């Protein structure tokens, strides 16, 4: 019956042709697109075009060629904006995830009076916490006293009501993930933003695990800022240049970390020591863009424009729901637990599969040509990405996992993570 369902769903899948645009090895079931998306032919072509512009034009490539470099970050920001429900000028492709977080916190965290604390959560990605602690220390504030961490009730999820309860008069800034990186929980960004603003608190979100997987309405919801990487669901390649969003209402707020690529484009080469910032999210750039690490996004974003976020989200939810049904029907006797929310409105793009032997099971999966992701201490993350994953792929992933467990193939591996998990 499950086989018939996968065949039926693949037969009517409006997005199935996109799989041919990606380099996925024959026989390999790639379920790690929430860590690193695979290379598309479009991205490969775009990188070749930018390399050719460098070869043909040299320094004139900044203003000449197929993809002039001087305005590339702004142009790609405009193409990325629909993915998060933002105005074109509110998005810029620049920097790295953590570098952009440092920029945004240095800009918007202005402790004054009793408002001197930053609110985060205990399940967020460690790099965000490192950055927040650093920013507090730069302002001579103790992280132990001024970084407030919302606790999880079960070690998997964060309840919105607990976050709202922590929005006290001492909070100056809130930084939260849109999707929790381990459990895949999708937070209610609209509700949290409204509650923060009722209390006069600025709020921003880490979109690393939602951009390209979940539609957002950041401008409509009046989210103050956001930041993300582009190498997961957006398939920008390892080390791809990241992105940030700043709501238009903040465009006159001077960047905390000024740099010349944040300049007004007409003024940048005046070489004045007086910084004249761009009147867009471009003001929050710092250094010269990494053009070759940006180039794959040119091709990748073309695919997203064609596919559309609504269709991608619909298929993503169908894939993860099918995967959870298979886990429950085929793996119930092997000690697995689904750690992500079951409700569509609370689930991101991956399934969080918990097991005490998770590290060694992941190694066995790779031996069986399934590429998963391990997160300590006991999580197997499986991300069926709608652009290049079929329902048959999901079916076969769980079938291979069942075989591994039935034959106890995982027992030959130590239950410890590799250097890179």
TrEMBL record:
EC number of this enzyme: 3.7.1.3
Keywords: Hydrolase, Pyridine nucleotide biosynthesis, Pyridoxal phosphate
Top EC group: hydrolase
GO cellular component, one term: cytoplasm
Catalysis: reaction(s): 3-hydroxy-L-kynurenine + H2O = 3-hydroxyanthranilate + L-alanine + H(+); L-kynurenine + H2O = anthranilate + L-alanine + H(+)
Gene3D superfamilies in the cross-refs: Aspartate Aminotransferase, domain 1, Type I PLP-dependent aspartate aminotransferase-like (Major domain)
GO BP term (any one): NAD+ biosynthetic process
InterPro entries, sorted: Kynureninase (IPR010111), PyrdxlP-dep_Trfase (IPR015424), PyrdxlP-dep_Trfase_major (IPR015421), PyrdxlP-dep_Trfase_small (IPR015422)
Molecular function terms, GO-annotated: kynureninase activity; pyridoxal phosphate binding
Name of the protein: Kynureninase
Gene of this entry: kynU
């Amino acid at each position: 019956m499950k086989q018939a369902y996968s065949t039926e769903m693949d037969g009517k899948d409006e997005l199935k042709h996109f799989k041919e645009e990606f380099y996925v090895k024959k026989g390999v079931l790639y379920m790690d697109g929430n860590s690193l998306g695979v290379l598309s032919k479009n991205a490969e072509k775009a990188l070749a075009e930018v390399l050719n512009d460098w070869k043909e034009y040299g320094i004139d490539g900044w203003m000449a060629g197929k993809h002039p470099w001087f305005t590339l970050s702004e142009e790609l920001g405009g193409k990325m904006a629909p993915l998060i429900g933002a105005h074109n000028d509110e998005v810029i492709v620049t920097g790295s995830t953590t570098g952009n977080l440092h920029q945004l916190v240095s800009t918007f965290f202005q402790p004054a009076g009793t408002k001197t604390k930053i609110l985060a959560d205990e399940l967020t990605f460690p790099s965000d916490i490192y950055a927040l602690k650093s920013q507090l220390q730069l302002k001579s504030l103790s992280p132990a006293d001024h970084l407030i961490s919302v606790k999880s009730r079960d070690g998997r999820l964060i309840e919105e009501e607990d976050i709202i309860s922590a929005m006290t008069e001492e909070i100056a800034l809130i930084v939260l993930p849109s999707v929790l990186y381990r459990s895949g929980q999708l937070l209610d960004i609209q509700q949290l933003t409204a509650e923060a603003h009722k209390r006069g608190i600025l709020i921003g979100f880490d979109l690393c695990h939602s951009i390209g997987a979940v539609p957002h309405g950041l401008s409509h919801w009046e989210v103050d800022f956001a930041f993300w990487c582009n190498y997961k669901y957006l398939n920008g390649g390892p080390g791809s240049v990241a992105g940030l969003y700043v709501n238009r209402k903040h465009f006159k707020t001077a960047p905390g970390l000024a740099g010349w690529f944040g300049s007004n484009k007409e003024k940048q080469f005046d070489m004045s020591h007086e910084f004249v910032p761009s009147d867009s999210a471009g003001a929050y750039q710092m250094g010269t863009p990494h053009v070759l690490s940006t180039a794959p996004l040119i091709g990748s974003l073309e695919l997203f424009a064609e596919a559309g976020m609504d269709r991608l989200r619909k298929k993503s939810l169908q894939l993860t729901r099918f995967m959870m049904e298979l886990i429950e029907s085929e793996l119930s006797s092997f000690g697995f637990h689904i750690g992500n929310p079951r409700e569509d409105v609370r689930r991101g793009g991956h399934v969080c599969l918990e097991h005490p032997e998770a590290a060694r099971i992941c190694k066995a999966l790779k031996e069986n040509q399934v590429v998963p992701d391990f997160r300590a201490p006991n999580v197997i993350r499986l991300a069926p990405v709608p652009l290049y994953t079929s329902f048959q792929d999901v079916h076969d992933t769980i079938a291979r996992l069942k075989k591994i467990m039935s034959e106890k193939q995982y027992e030959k591996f130590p239950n410890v993570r590799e250097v890179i998990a």
